[in-house]
Amino acid sequence: MVRVIAIISGKGGVGKTTTAANLGVSLAYDYHKDVVAIDANTTSSGLGLHLGNYHFKKTLNDVLKNRINIPEAIFNHPSGLKFIPSSTSINSIDADPAGIKRVVSHLEPYVDIILLDCPPTLGNETISGVDSANEIIIVANPDWASLLEARRVIDYANFKKKKIIGLVLNKEENVSEEFRQRVIDSMGIPIIASIPEDNAVIDSVTKRVPVVHLHPHSKAAKAYRKLIEEVTGEQFPRKFGIMSRIFG
Amino acid sequence: MRDLRYATLMTITLVLFFGTVLAQCSEAEIANCDSWDLKAYWNDSSNGCNCVKDFCFNVTCSETLCGANNTLRYDGTCDPDTSECVYQEMNCPEGCGYANPENTTEDYACIGEPVNDTTSDCIDPPDCTPFNKTLNETSCDCYIPIVQDNSTVNPCPQAQCHLFDNMELNETTCTCYTLITENNSPDTGSGLDELTGFITSIPSQLGTSTGVIVLFIAGIIILIIFFFTGNDNVETEKDLSEFDTLFKKRKEPKFKKKKKLSDSQLKREVEKKIYEEEDLEDIPQTDSGKKIYGG
Ligand SMILES: Nc1ncnc2c1ncn2[C@@H]1O[C@H](COP(=O)(O)OP(=O)(O)OP(=O)(O)O)[C@@H](O)[C@H]1O
Ligand SMILES: [Mg+2]
Protein backbone atom coordinates (compact mmCIF):
# COMPACT_ATOMS: atom_id res chain seq x y z
CA MET A 1 0.00 0.00 0.00
CA VAL A 2 1.18 3.51 -0.76
CA ARG A 3 2.32 5.35 2.34
CA VAL A 4 0.63 8.70 2.65
CA ILE A 5 2.36 10.51 5.49
CA ALA A 6 0.99 13.78 6.85
CA ILE A 7 3.45 15.93 8.81
CA ILE A 8 1.50 17.97 11.31
CA SER A 9 1.94 20.07 14.44
CA GLY A 10 -0.06 22.07 16.90
CA LYS A 11 2.09 25.18 17.00
CA GLY A 12 3.58 26.85 13.94
CA GLY A 13 7.24 27.18 13.03
CA VAL A 14 8.28 24.00 14.80
CA GLY A 15 9.97 22.45 11.75
CA LYS A 16 7.37 20.51 9.76
CA THR A 17 8.45 21.90 6.42
CA THR A 18 12.13 21.35 7.21
CA THR A 19 11.28 17.77 8.14
CA ALA A 20 9.20 17.24 4.99
CA ALA A 21 11.96 18.63 2.75
CA ASN A 22 14.67 16.47 4.30
CA LEU A 23 12.55 13.33 4.32
CA GLY A 24 11.47 13.95 0.74
CA VAL A 25 14.83 14.49 -0.91
CA SER A 26 16.49 11.74 1.08
CA LEU A 27 13.83 9.12 0.39
CA ALA A 28 14.08 9.95 -3.31
CA TYR A 29 17.84 10.44 -3.64
CA ASP A 30 19.29 8.03 -1.11
CA TYR A 31 16.57 5.36 -0.99
CA HIS A 32 15.51 5.64 -4.67
CA LYS A 33 11.83 5.74 -3.78
CA ASP A 34 9.12 7.31 -5.92
CA VAL A 35 8.10 10.13 -3.64
CA VAL A 36 5.75 13.05 -4.13
CA ALA A 37 5.85 15.86 -1.59
CA ILE A 38 2.76 18.04 -1.48
CA ASP A 39 2.82 21.47 0.10
CA ALA A 40 -0.61 21.27 1.73
CA ASN A 41 -0.23 24.83 3.03
CA THR A 42 -2.56 26.50 0.56
CA THR A 43 -2.51 29.70 2.58
CA SER A 44 1.07 29.78 3.84
CA SER A 45 3.32 27.82 1.51
CA GLY A 46 6.95 27.21 2.32
CA LEU A 47 8.18 23.83 1.13
CA GLY A 48 9.20 25.18 -2.28
CA LEU A 49 11.70 27.51 -0.67
CA HIS A 50 13.40 24.60 1.08
CA LEU A 51 13.63 22.76 -2.25
CA GLY A 52 15.08 25.56 -4.37
CA ASN A 53 12.31 27.89 -5.48
CA TYR A 54 9.60 29.90 -3.79
CA HIS A 55 7.33 30.86 -6.64
CA PHE A 56 5.72 28.45 -9.06
CA LYS A 57 3.59 29.16 -12.09
CA LYS A 58 1.28 26.26 -11.36
CA THR A 59 0.36 25.20 -7.88
CA LEU A 60 -1.88 23.01 -5.77
CA ASN A 61 -4.17 26.02 -5.40
CA ASP A 62 -4.76 26.01 -9.16
CA VAL A 63 -5.53 22.30 -9.03
CA LEU A 64 -7.97 22.79 -6.17
CA LYS A 65 -9.62 25.63 -8.07
CA ASN A 66 -9.92 23.35 -11.13
CA ARG A 67 -7.82 25.68 -13.25
CA ILE A 68 -5.31 23.01 -14.19
CA ASN A 69 -4.97 19.24 -14.06
CA ILE A 70 -2.95 17.55 -11.35
CA PRO A 71 0.11 16.56 -13.47
CA GLU A 72 0.67 20.15 -14.52
CA ALA A 73 1.41 21.09 -10.92
CA ILE A 74 4.05 18.39 -10.41
CA PHE A 75 7.61 19.65 -10.43
CA ASN A 76 10.83 17.71 -10.53
CA HIS A 77 13.54 18.18 -7.90
CA PRO A 78 17.05 17.14 -8.98
CA SER A 79 17.07 14.62 -6.12
CA GLY A 80 14.33 12.72 -7.95
CA LEU A 81 11.63 13.95 -5.60
CA LYS A 82 8.36 15.05 -7.23
CA PHE A 83 6.85 18.15 -5.73
CA ILE A 84 3.48 19.89 -5.83
CA PRO A 85 3.95 23.44 -4.58
CA SER A 86 1.26 25.65 -3.22
CA SER A 87 0.70 29.26 -4.08
CA THR A 88 2.55 32.17 -2.53
CA SER A 89 0.12 34.71 -3.96
CA ILE A 90 -3.06 36.06 -2.44
CA ASN A 91 -4.96 35.27 -5.62
CA SER A 92 -6.04 31.78 -4.76
CA ILE A 93 -6.10 31.61 -0.99
CA ASP A 94 -9.75 30.65 -1.26
CA ALA A 95 -8.84 27.25 -2.77
CA ASP A 96 -10.80 24.55 -0.96
CA PRO A 97 -8.37 22.21 0.80
CA ALA A 98 -10.97 19.43 0.85
CA GLY A 99 -9.73 18.62 -2.67
CA ILE A 100 -6.34 17.49 -1.32
CA LYS A 101 -7.83 14.03 -0.85
CA ARG A 102 -8.68 13.87 -4.54
CA VAL A 103 -5.10 14.84 -5.45
CA VAL A 104 -3.69 12.17 -3.14
CA SER A 105 -5.88 9.41 -4.49
CA HIS A 106 -4.98 10.32 -8.07
CA LEU A 107 -1.27 10.05 -7.28
CA GLU A 108 -1.46 6.88 -5.20
CA PRO A 109 -1.22 4.37 -8.06
CA TYR A 110 2.07 5.79 -9.27
CA VAL A 111 4.24 6.39 -6.22
CA ASP A 112 5.68 4.68 -3.14
CA ILE A 113 5.29 7.53 -0.70
CA ILE A 114 3.27 10.74 -0.58
CA LEU A 115 4.37 13.36 1.95
CA LEU A 116 1.93 16.05 3.02
CA ASP A 117 3.48 19.13 4.59
CA CYS A 118 0.55 20.52 6.55
CA PRO A 119 0.07 23.91 8.16
CA PRO A 120 -0.01 24.26 11.93
CA THR A 121 -3.20 23.92 14.02
CA LEU A 122 -6.27 21.91 13.16
CA GLY A 123 -7.57 24.08 10.33
CA ASN A 124 -9.23 22.79 7.18
CA GLU A 125 -5.95 22.10 5.40
CA THR A 126 -4.59 20.00 8.27
CA ILE A 127 -7.88 18.17 8.69
CA SER A 128 -7.92 17.44 4.98
CA GLY A 129 -4.25 16.37 5.18
CA VAL A 130 -4.89 14.01 8.08
CA ASP A 131 -7.99 12.60 6.40
CA SER A 132 -6.03 11.92 3.20
CA ALA A 133 -3.11 10.30 5.02
CA ASN A 134 -2.72 6.83 6.42
CA GLU A 135 0.25 7.70 8.64
CA ILE A 136 1.11 10.74 10.72
CA ILE A 137 4.33 12.35 11.91
CA ILE A 138 3.95 14.91 14.68
CA VAL A 139 6.54 17.68 14.99
CA ALA A 140 7.00 19.70 18.17
CA ASN A 141 9.65 21.69 19.97
CA PRO A 142 10.64 20.85 23.51
CA ASP A 143 8.54 23.56 25.12
CA TRP A 144 5.21 23.15 26.81
CA ALA A 145 3.23 25.44 24.55
CA SER A 146 4.28 23.42 21.54
CA LEU A 147 3.75 20.07 23.30
CA LEU A 148 0.32 20.93 24.61
CA GLU A 149 -0.86 21.88 21.15
CA ALA A 150 0.79 18.75 19.78
CA ARG A 151 -1.35 16.76 22.20
CA ARG A 152 -4.46 18.15 20.55
CA VAL A 153 -3.42 17.09 17.04
CA ILE A 154 -2.41 13.68 18.41
CA ASP A 155 -5.91 13.36 19.87
CA TYR A 156 -7.38 14.24 16.49
CA ALA A 157 -5.20 11.73 14.64
CA ASN A 158 -6.15 9.04 17.18
CA PHE A 159 -9.80 10.00 16.84
CA LYS A 160 -9.47 9.51 13.08
CA LYS A 161 -7.78 6.15 13.79
CA LYS A 162 -4.62 7.10 11.89
CA LYS A 163 -1.34 5.38 12.55
CA ILE A 164 0.99 7.82 14.29
CA ILE A 165 4.60 7.00 13.42
CA GLY A 166 5.84 9.19 16.25
CA LEU A 167 7.02 12.54 17.45
CA VAL A 168 9.90 14.52 15.97
CA LEU A 169 11.30 16.67 18.74
CA ASN A 170 12.90 19.49 16.76
CA LYS A 171 15.21 22.30 17.84
CA GLU A 172 16.10 20.45 20.98
CA GLU A 173 19.14 21.37 22.98
CA ASN A 174 20.40 19.79 26.18
CA VAL A 175 17.14 18.07 26.89
CA SER A 176 17.41 15.71 29.83
CA GLU A 177 16.42 12.07 29.63
CA GLU A 178 13.82 12.67 32.32
CA PHE A 179 12.22 15.41 30.26
CA ARG A 180 12.12 13.17 27.19
CA GLN A 181 10.49 10.42 29.20
CA ARG A 182 7.85 12.84 30.40
CA VAL A 183 7.17 13.89 26.84
CA ILE A 184 6.78 10.28 25.74
CA ASP A 185 4.43 9.53 28.64
CA SER A 186 2.28 12.59 28.20
CA MET A 187 2.06 12.45 24.41
CA GLY A 188 1.45 8.72 24.39
CA ILE A 189 3.64 8.27 21.29
CA PRO A 190 7.34 7.50 20.83
CA ILE A 191 9.95 10.14 20.03
CA ILE A 192 11.28 8.93 16.69
CA ALA A 193 13.88 11.66 16.26
CA SER A 194 15.49 14.45 18.22
CA ILE A 195 16.76 17.11 15.86
CA PRO A 196 19.14 19.55 17.51
CA GLU A 197 18.93 23.29 17.04
CA ASP A 198 21.59 23.73 14.38
CA ASN A 199 22.81 26.66 12.29
CA ALA A 200 23.28 24.19 9.45
CA VAL A 201 19.48 24.08 9.12
CA ILE A 202 19.19 27.85 8.90
CA ASP A 203 21.94 27.87 6.29
CA SER A 204 20.21 25.15 4.32
CA VAL A 205 17.03 27.22 4.16
CA THR A 206 19.03 30.20 2.91
CA LYS A 207 20.78 28.08 0.29
CA ARG A 208 17.56 26.21 -0.47
CA VAL A 209 19.07 22.74 -0.24
CA PRO A 210 17.85 20.42 2.54
CA VAL A 211 20.42 19.98 5.29
CA VAL A 212 20.77 16.20 4.81
CA HIS A 213 22.42 16.96 1.50
CA LEU A 214 23.90 20.43 2.03
CA HIS A 215 25.66 19.67 5.32
CA PRO A 216 25.54 15.88 5.60
CA HIS A 217 28.02 15.89 8.49
CA SER A 218 26.07 18.33 10.61
CA LYS A 219 24.33 17.22 13.79
CA ALA A 220 20.93 18.01 12.28
CA ALA A 221 21.64 15.91 9.17
CA LYS A 222 22.72 13.00 11.35
CA ALA A 223 19.49 13.28 13.32
CA TYR A 224 17.41 13.49 10.15
CA ARG A 225 19.08 10.33 8.84
CA LYS A 226 18.00 8.58 12.03
CA LEU A 227 14.47 9.81 11.46
CA ILE A 228 14.50 8.50 7.90
CA GLU A 229 15.73 5.12 9.17
CA GLU A 230 12.82 5.10 11.64
CA VAL A 231 10.32 5.95 8.94
CA THR A 232 11.60 3.45 6.38
CA GLY A 233 12.67 0.77 8.84
CA GLU A 234 15.78 0.42 6.66
CA GLN A 235 19.37 1.38 7.32
CA PHE A 236 20.57 4.55 5.64
CA PRO A 237 22.21 3.45 2.36
CA ARG A 238 25.28 5.66 2.70
CA LYS A 239 27.80 5.93 5.52
CA PHE A 240 28.88 9.28 6.95
CA GLY A 241 31.76 8.34 9.24
CA ILE A 242 35.33 9.67 9.48
CA MET A 243 36.33 7.88 6.27
CA SER A 244 33.65 9.55 4.21
CA ARG A 245 34.80 12.93 5.57
CA ILE A 246 38.41 12.28 4.59
CA PHE A 247 37.78 10.66 1.23
CA GLY A 248 34.66 12.62 0.34
CA MET B 1 -64.86 40.56 -44.39
CA ARG B 2 -62.29 41.59 -41.82
CA ASP B 3 -64.88 43.71 -39.93
CA LEU B 4 -67.24 40.75 -39.79
CA ARG B 5 -64.53 38.62 -38.19
CA TYR B 6 -63.83 41.31 -35.54
CA ALA B 7 -67.54 41.64 -34.77
CA THR B 8 -67.93 37.88 -34.24
CA LEU B 9 -64.89 37.78 -31.98
CA MET B 10 -66.13 40.69 -29.89
CA THR B 11 -69.59 39.12 -29.50
CA ILE B 12 -68.09 35.81 -28.33
CA THR B 13 -65.85 37.60 -25.82
CA LEU B 14 -68.73 39.66 -24.44
CA VAL B 15 -71.04 36.63 -24.15
CA LEU B 16 -68.34 34.65 -22.35
CA PHE B 17 -67.53 37.56 -19.99
CA PHE B 18 -71.10 38.40 -18.99
CA GLY B 19 -72.01 34.70 -18.94
CA THR B 20 -69.37 33.97 -16.28
CA VAL B 21 -70.16 37.04 -14.25
CA LEU B 22 -73.86 36.41 -14.38
CA ALA B 23 -73.64 32.66 -13.80
CA GLN B 24 -72.92 33.24 -10.13
CA CYS B 25 -75.07 33.73 -7.06
CA SER B 26 -75.36 37.33 -6.02
CA GLU B 27 -74.19 38.52 -2.60
CA ALA B 28 -77.77 38.78 -1.39
CA GLU B 29 -78.53 35.21 -2.52
CA ILE B 30 -75.35 33.90 -0.73
CA ALA B 31 -76.32 35.75 2.50
CA ASN B 32 -79.79 34.30 2.27
CA CYS B 33 -78.48 30.72 2.04
CA ASP B 34 -75.95 31.46 4.84
CA SER B 35 -78.75 32.43 7.18
CA TRP B 36 -80.19 28.90 6.78
CA ASP B 37 -76.77 27.31 7.38
CA LEU B 38 -76.84 26.33 3.74
CA LYS B 39 -74.56 27.01 0.85
CA ALA B 40 -75.46 29.10 -2.18
CA TYR B 41 -75.24 26.99 -5.33
CA TRP B 42 -75.63 28.10 -8.95
CA ASN B 43 -77.67 25.64 -10.89
CA ASP B 44 -76.75 25.84 -14.56
CA SER B 45 -79.76 23.86 -15.79
CA SER B 46 -82.36 25.98 -14.00
CA ASN B 47 -80.15 29.00 -14.54
CA GLY B 48 -80.83 30.18 -10.99
CA CYS B 49 -79.28 30.27 -7.52
CA ASN B 50 -80.33 27.54 -5.11
CA CYS B 51 -79.49 26.84 -1.49
CA VAL B 52 -78.04 23.38 -0.83
CA LYS B 53 -76.89 21.61 2.30
CA ASP B 54 -73.13 21.98 2.70
CA PHE B 55 -71.73 18.97 4.48
CA CYS B 56 -68.46 20.73 4.90
CA PHE B 57 -70.01 23.87 6.32
CA ASN B 58 -67.93 25.01 9.30
CA VAL B 59 -65.63 22.00 8.91
CA THR B 60 -61.94 22.91 9.08
CA CYS B 61 -59.48 20.15 8.48
CA SER B 62 -56.77 20.30 11.15
CA GLU B 63 -53.74 19.76 8.98
CA THR B 64 -50.05 19.09 9.55
CA LEU B 65 -50.49 17.17 12.74
CA CYS B 66 -48.04 14.73 14.08
CA GLY B 67 -50.50 12.45 15.70
CA ALA B 68 -50.82 8.87 16.81
CA ASN B 69 -48.57 6.27 15.15
CA ASN B 70 -46.05 8.99 14.41
CA THR B 71 -47.99 10.01 11.33
CA LEU B 72 -48.08 13.41 9.77
CA ARG B 73 -51.37 14.38 8.05
CA TYR B 74 -51.38 17.32 5.72
CA ASP B 75 -53.31 18.90 2.81
CA GLY B 76 -56.63 17.99 4.44
CA THR B 77 -59.72 18.56 2.28
CA CYS B 78 -63.31 18.12 3.34
CA ASP B 79 -65.36 15.58 1.40
CA PRO B 80 -68.65 17.41 0.69
CA ASP B 81 -70.62 14.13 0.61
CA THR B 82 -69.42 12.69 3.90
CA SER B 83 -68.12 15.89 5.55
CA GLU B 84 -64.96 13.99 6.48
CA CYS B 85 -61.51 15.40 6.07
CA VAL B 86 -59.27 13.56 3.66
CA TYR B 87 -55.53 13.92 4.32
CA GLN B 88 -52.25 13.17 2.67
CA GLU B 89 -50.14 11.14 5.06
CA MET B 90 -46.47 10.57 5.77
CA ASN B 91 -44.27 9.57 8.68
CA CYS B 92 -43.35 12.40 11.00
CA PRO B 93 -40.05 14.02 10.09
CA GLU B 94 -37.14 13.62 12.46
CA GLY B 95 -37.45 15.92 15.42
CA CYS B 96 -41.21 15.65 15.58
CA GLY B 97 -42.80 13.82 18.39
CA TYR B 98 -44.91 14.46 21.40
CA ALA B 99 -44.14 17.60 23.33
CA ASN B 100 -44.94 15.67 26.44
CA PRO B 101 -43.91 12.03 25.96
CA GLU B 102 -46.15 11.02 28.88
CA ASN B 103 -49.23 12.37 27.20
CA THR B 104 -49.36 10.80 23.76
CA THR B 105 -52.98 11.68 23.21
CA GLU B 106 -52.04 15.22 22.35
CA ASP B 107 -51.21 16.07 18.79
CA TYR B 108 -49.00 18.92 17.89
CA ALA B 109 -47.77 20.57 14.71
CA CYS B 110 -44.25 19.92 13.66
CA ILE B 111 -43.88 20.89 10.04
CA GLY B 112 -41.49 23.71 9.32
CA GLU B 113 -40.09 23.72 12.79
CA PRO B 114 -39.03 20.29 14.02
CA VAL B 115 -39.65 20.00 17.73
CA ASN B 116 -37.02 18.51 19.99
CA ASP B 117 -38.00 15.23 21.47
CA THR B 118 -36.37 16.15 24.80
CA THR B 119 -34.05 13.09 24.62
CA SER B 120 -31.35 15.29 23.10
CA ASP B 121 -31.02 19.03 22.78
CA CYS B 122 -27.71 18.74 20.95
CA ILE B 123 -27.98 19.28 17.24
CA ASP B 124 -24.26 18.73 16.74
CA PRO B 125 -23.18 16.88 19.89
CA PRO B 126 -19.47 16.89 20.81
CA ASP B 127 -17.64 13.58 20.77
CA CYS B 128 -16.95 12.83 24.41
CA THR B 129 -15.38 9.42 23.85
CA PRO B 130 -11.77 10.59 23.47
CA PHE B 131 -12.05 11.97 27.00
CA ASN B 132 -13.90 8.95 28.41
CA LYS B 133 -16.80 11.22 29.27
CA THR B 134 -20.52 11.10 28.83
CA LEU B 135 -22.63 13.54 26.84
CA ASN B 136 -25.00 15.73 28.82
CA GLU B 137 -27.78 15.96 26.31
CA THR B 138 -29.40 18.99 27.84
CA SER B 139 -26.35 21.21 28.09
CA CYS B 140 -24.47 19.57 25.18
CA ASP B 141 -21.39 19.22 27.38
CA CYS B 142 -19.18 16.28 28.13
CA TYR B 143 -19.25 15.37 31.79
CA ILE B 144 -17.57 12.89 34.03
CA PRO B 145 -20.04 10.26 35.18
CA ILE B 146 -20.17 10.22 38.96
CA VAL B 147 -18.66 7.11 40.39
CA GLN B 148 -18.74 6.13 44.00
CA ASP B 149 -15.03 6.22 44.73
CA ASN B 150 -13.78 9.01 42.54
CA SER B 151 -10.44 9.27 44.29
CA THR B 152 -9.14 6.35 42.22
CA VAL B 153 -10.69 7.35 38.92
CA ASN B 154 -8.75 9.54 36.51
CA PRO B 155 -11.45 11.49 34.66
CA CYS B 156 -9.17 12.23 31.72
CA PRO B 157 -6.86 9.24 31.36
CA GLN B 158 -5.19 10.60 28.25
CA ALA B 159 -4.23 13.96 29.69
CA GLN B 160 -1.46 13.02 32.03
CA CYS B 161 -0.73 16.48 33.32
CA HIS B 162 1.05 15.26 36.41
CA LEU B 163 3.87 14.24 34.12
CA PHE B 164 4.54 17.86 33.23
CA ASP B 165 6.22 20.29 35.54
CA ASN B 166 3.83 22.76 37.13
CA MET B 167 0.82 21.47 35.27
CA GLU B 168 -2.65 20.79 36.57
CA LEU B 169 -5.56 19.04 34.95
CA ASN B 170 -8.68 20.96 33.99
CA GLU B 171 -11.20 18.19 34.43
CA THR B 172 -13.91 19.92 32.47
CA THR B 173 -11.93 20.31 29.28
CA CYS B 174 -9.44 17.48 29.95
CA THR B 175 -6.56 19.77 29.14
CA CYS B 176 -3.48 20.63 31.12
CA TYR B 177 -2.89 24.18 32.28
CA THR B 178 0.21 25.76 33.68
CA LEU B 179 0.39 26.81 37.29
CA ILE B 180 2.02 30.21 37.35
CA THR B 181 5.22 29.85 39.33
CA GLU B 182 8.41 31.86 39.32
CA ASN B 183 10.55 29.41 37.40
CA ASN B 184 8.69 27.59 34.66
CA SER B 185 11.49 26.46 32.41
CA PRO B 186 11.77 22.75 31.69
CA ASP B 187 14.50 20.80 33.35
CA THR B 188 17.18 20.67 30.71
CA GLY B 189 20.38 19.86 32.58
CA SER B 190 23.47 20.83 30.59
CA GLY B 191 26.09 18.11 30.16
CA LEU B 192 28.51 20.74 28.87
CA ASP B 193 28.58 22.52 32.23
CA GLU B 194 29.54 19.30 33.95
CA LEU B 195 32.28 18.63 31.37
CA THR B 196 33.89 22.08 31.71
CA GLY B 197 33.73 21.78 35.49
CA PHE B 198 35.51 18.46 35.31
CA ILE B 199 38.24 19.74 32.97
CA THR B 200 39.01 22.85 35.03
CA SER B 201 39.34 20.68 38.15
CA ILE B 202 42.02 18.44 36.58
CA PRO B 203 45.10 20.67 37.35
CA SER B 204 44.29 20.86 41.02
CA GLN B 205 43.80 17.09 41.12
CA LEU B 206 47.06 16.17 39.36
CA GLY B 207 49.45 18.98 40.26
CA THR B 208 49.89 21.94 37.93
CA SER B 209 52.65 20.75 35.49
CA THR B 210 51.23 17.25 34.98
CA GLY B 211 47.81 18.86 34.68
CA VAL B 212 48.99 21.20 31.92
CA ILE B 213 50.46 18.27 29.95
CA VAL B 214 47.29 16.21 30.38
CA LEU B 215 45.17 19.20 29.29
CA PHE B 216 47.43 19.79 26.26
CA ILE B 217 47.13 16.16 25.09
CA ALA B 218 43.39 16.15 25.78
CA GLY B 219 43.04 19.36 23.78
CA ILE B 220 44.78 17.84 20.75
CA ILE B 221 42.58 14.71 20.96
CA ILE B 222 39.45 16.85 21.19
CA LEU B 223 40.58 18.94 18.20
CA ILE B 224 41.16 15.79 16.11
CA ILE B 225 37.76 14.40 17.09
CA PHE B 226 36.05 17.68 16.27
CA PHE B 227 37.85 17.98 12.96
CA PHE B 228 36.90 14.54 11.71
CA THR B 229 33.56 13.79 13.25
CA GLY B 230 32.22 17.05 14.56
CA ASN B 231 29.46 19.28 13.35
CA ASP B 232 29.88 21.24 10.15
CA ASN B 233 30.79 24.63 11.51
CA VAL B 234 28.15 26.57 9.68
CA GLU B 235 27.96 30.31 9.95
CA THR B 236 24.46 31.60 9.55
CA GLU B 237 24.60 33.31 6.24
CA LYS B 238 22.54 36.40 5.84
CA ASP B 239 22.64 36.51 2.08
CA LEU B 240 20.68 39.63 1.35
CA SER B 241 20.73 39.18 -2.41
CA GLU B 242 18.56 36.08 -1.86
CA PHE B 243 16.01 38.20 -0.07
CA ASP B 244 16.05 40.85 -2.80
CA THR B 245 15.01 38.28 -5.36
CA LEU B 246 12.57 36.74 -2.92
CA PHE B 247 10.47 39.84 -2.55
CA LYS B 248 10.96 41.30 -6.03
CA LYS B 249 7.66 42.28 -7.59
CA ARG B 250 6.45 39.46 -9.73
CA LYS B 251 3.69 38.96 -12.18
CA GLU B 252 0.90 36.53 -11.45
CA PRO B 253 0.54 34.08 -14.33
CA LYS B 254 -2.69 34.04 -16.26
CA PHE B 255 -4.42 30.75 -16.84
CA LYS B 256 -6.21 29.76 -19.95
CA LYS B 257 -9.21 27.57 -19.37
CA LYS B 258 -8.30 24.09 -20.46
CA LYS B 259 -10.35 21.20 -21.61
CA LYS B 260 -10.94 18.90 -18.64
CA LEU B 261 -9.55 15.41 -18.94
CA SER B 262 -11.44 12.28 -18.06
CA ASP B 263 -10.26 10.20 -15.12
CA SER B 264 -8.49 7.65 -17.27
CA GLN B 265 -6.85 10.35 -19.39
CA LEU B 266 -5.72 12.05 -16.23
CA LYS B 267 -4.24 8.82 -14.84
CA ARG B 268 -2.38 8.25 -18.06
CA GLU B 269 -1.05 11.76 -17.92
CA VAL B 270 0.06 11.39 -14.31
CA GLU B 271 1.78 8.13 -15.18
CA LYS B 272 3.58 9.79 -18.04
CA LYS B 273 4.60 12.72 -15.86
CA ILE B 274 5.78 10.61 -12.95
CA TYR B 275 7.76 8.10 -14.94
CA GLU B 276 9.12 10.18 -17.78
CA GLU B 277 10.99 12.66 -15.73
CA GLU B 278 12.01 14.82 -18.65
CA ASP B 279 8.35 15.81 -18.94
CA LEU B 280 8.34 17.39 -15.51
CA GLU B 281 9.29 20.98 -15.18
CA ASP B 282 12.39 21.27 -12.98
CA ILE B 283 12.50 23.28 -9.80
CA PRO B 284 15.07 26.03 -10.42
CA GLN B 285 18.06 25.54 -8.16
CA THR B 286 20.39 27.92 -6.39
CA ASP B 287 24.15 27.62 -6.99
CA SER B 288 24.41 25.46 -3.85
CA GLY B 289 21.67 23.20 -5.21
CA LYS B 290 23.43 22.84 -8.55
CA LYS B 291 26.71 22.03 -6.78
CA ILE B 292 25.07 19.33 -4.67
CA TYR B 293 22.87 17.68 -7.27
CA GLY B 294 24.81 18.62 -10.38
CA GLY B 295 23.33 20.25 -13.48
N1 LIG C 1 16.73 21.99 13.85
C1 LIG C 1 16.68 23.30 13.56
N2 LIG C 1 17.67 24.11 13.94
C2 LIG C 1 17.64 25.44 13.65
N3 LIG C 1 16.65 26.04 13.00
C3 LIG C 1 15.62 25.28 12.59
C4 LIG C 1 15.58 23.88 12.84
N4 LIG C 1 14.44 23.38 12.31
C5 LIG C 1 13.81 24.43 11.75
N5 LIG C 1 14.51 25.56 11.91
C6 LIG C 1 14.13 26.90 11.45
O1 LIG C 1 12.84 27.20 11.90
C7 LIG C 1 12.10 27.83 10.90
C8 LIG C 1 10.72 27.23 10.83
O2 LIG C 1 10.83 25.91 10.36
P1 LIG C 1 9.75 25.29 9.39
O3 LIG C 1 9.38 26.24 8.31
O4 LIG C 1 10.23 23.95 8.99
O5 LIG C 1 8.54 25.17 10.43
P2 LIG C 1 7.04 24.78 10.12
O6 LIG C 1 6.58 23.97 11.26
O7 LIG C 1 6.93 24.20 8.77
O8 LIG C 1 6.37 26.21 10.12
P3 LIG C 1 4.86 26.55 9.73
O9 LIG C 1 4.06 26.08 10.88
O10 LIG C 1 4.86 28.02 9.59
O11 LIG C 1 4.56 25.81 8.47
C9 LIG C 1 12.84 27.65 9.59
O12 LIG C 1 13.10 28.88 9.04
C10 LIG C 1 14.11 26.93 9.93
O13 LIG C 1 15.21 27.66 9.47
MG1 LIG D 1 5.65 24.79 7.16
Q: Helical residue percent of chain B?
A: 25-40%
DSSP helix fraction of chain A: 40-55%
User: How many helical elements of chain B?
Assistant: 7
Helix-strand category of chain B:
alpha+beta
* Overall radius of gyration of chain B: 46 Å
What would you call the shape of chain A? globular
Strands ordered across the widest β-sheet of chain B:
5-4-3-6
CATH architecture grouping of chain A: 3-Layer(aba) Sandwich
> What is the CATH homologous superfamily assignment of chain A?
P-loop containing nucleotide triphosphate hydrolases
Instruction: Characterize the main sheet of chain B.
Output: 4 strands, antiparallel
User: Could you state the order of secondary-structure elements of chain A as H and E?
Assistant: EHEHHEEHEHEHEHEHHHH
Beta-strand fraction estimate of chain A: 15-25%
CATH class of chain A: Alpha Beta
| Estimated radius of gyration of chain A | 17 Å
Mean pLDDT of chain A: 90
Q: Which stretches of chain B are poorly predicted, pLDDT < 50 over at least 5 residues?
A: 107-119, 148-152, 181-206, 235-240, 246-257
Fill in the CATH topology of chain A: Rossmann fold
Number of domains of chain A: 1
Low-confidence stretches of chain A: none
Mean pLDDT of chain B: 63
Short synopsis of the structure:
Chain A is an alpha/beta fold. Chain A is 41% helix and 17% strand.
